[in-house]
Amino acid sequence: LLQNVFLYDSVCPRQALDKTCLFSHVDGKLYGRENELGILMNMVEHISPHGPTSQRKEFSYEAAFLGGHSGSGKSSIIKRVVSHWKVNGWSMVFCKFDRQTSPLSTLLLAFDAFFGQFIPNQVDGINLGRNLQHAVDRISSSIVNSIDSDSVHQLCELLPSFRRLFPSAMHYVKHNSICSIQNGSFAQHSNIGASCMNGTSQTVNTSSPGNVGSGRHRLLNLFQILFKEICCTGHPVLICVEDLQWADEFTMDIIVQSVRSNSAMSEVEYARGGMLLLGSFRDNEVPEDGFLIGKIKLLEPSVNVTMLSISELPLQDVDYLLSFKFCVPKRYTRDLAHLVYQKTRGNPIFVIEFIRSIIQRNLVTFSVKSRRWTWDDTTIDLQMISEGVVEFLTKKLKQLPSDVIEALKVISCFGQVNVSTIHLLGFVDFVPNMLESLESAVKEGIVERSGPIFAFCHDMLQESTYSIIPPNERKPLHKMIGMNLALQDPEISQNAELCTLAVNQINICKDADGILDYSERALFARLNLAAGKHSMSTKKANYQQARGYFEAGISLLHADHWTKQYALSLELYERSIVVGFMDGNVETVPSRV
Q1: Beta 447-450 vs 453-456: how paired, if at all?
Q2: Short-list 492, 69, 538, CA closest to 312
């Protein structure tokens, strides 16, 4: 009956097409995921302060991890559940890893965004209520009292939103520094207190150059304190971490140890409900004996862990999807469903893209006379289809205008790109009208824009776009992008963002024979040194990334660099050793001494 209402309410092809939601992002309906959604919603009820276990005093900890192939619909499930939690007032930290961005930087950005949502007088006109303001002030006070002034300063550098939300934190740093100087006991290197592990306070000397892994321990303790205090907002907490196949071992250590340290405590003061750690990963890209699965297993038995396998859609769900989209009973779509399932093997993104393609090619049309969608099964059955979704998407992308394709090729080298970077690239002739081309890609549903950021709607679209670039042209394109960015600012070494963007592109292609001449190698050896300095600063404290830049800089030095590039060589070697000690990675340090 509902399908008939939808059907006969349509009086033209455009209206009928809009109702399918196939070419928009407004359709939030999921197909064939009732079991997975049910399990996650039961976990929500268990954690919710209004659920059946809401009278307990203990803070409940749950974890769920969704594993499946790319395009299987993991992100769609997470989006559906997250939208439910937003309505019900959960505190949420959302983190989506990608292959281009450092995992630690991604995690820091997620926590910065969490604190940023509480800053009043933003564009949205947010004003905190009395209860929420009280909770936020309590978090600030508790964090500041749990760590020393050096750590408060580092936290304010790592999370700019924290500094803006709690300006009193910086006053605390200045006050403690003045008091220490007046007492004649000012120390440049202090300890982080309150390590929270096993519910006890530990004092760890994390800053002394003599302690291997001091920087790593400091960050780990800071995150453990952040996790703990976020649980004290008076609301249940969701920590969402997508695409964990691109997280590194240290980032997983931060997540897992922070959750475990809090779960070891019998009761969290001021807490209501609990915390849910929700993650996703490509199970075909993660080895069973790898560090990711090993870290997840470490959560047990402190945390109740649920592993969900997100498989391809079965035939009956493909039939239901077609029936719902085309507003006809399933008996009309049964044969078409068999064809679609046979050609796509039930991969959700493949199914949707294939349906879009047969509509765009007029193999499925809306008949005004019969007021329903019509098609010919035999004609559709004769359509050739690629072996996989990436190949299928690649063919679709090649049908776009050439200027759009060229713009997409460039941002596929980044993953996501800021408008400011687009303007810099727009000054050169190899990508004319790049911003306009990306806006066209947004209309095609290939790229989405969030504020100043352009990003692919799905990582498979990025992979497909990158595969369009002939293999022998990829490294030259990375070099072209890197060189153009590097030449935009004569003081680029002082511009952390631009410097990092440029060296990331060059480091992809630097080992190709003859791609960089002597002067270019010297330039990017210096810029890798600058990028490493930015990464090890208190604003990032990313020692693993910093060491990667220093080592890349060393690899770009002249063969006789101790004679021709002595000062640069010495600084690269020394800094590589320092960050190796601070990160606790000392295996290769002897080769740099």
Answers
A1: antiparallel
A2: 69
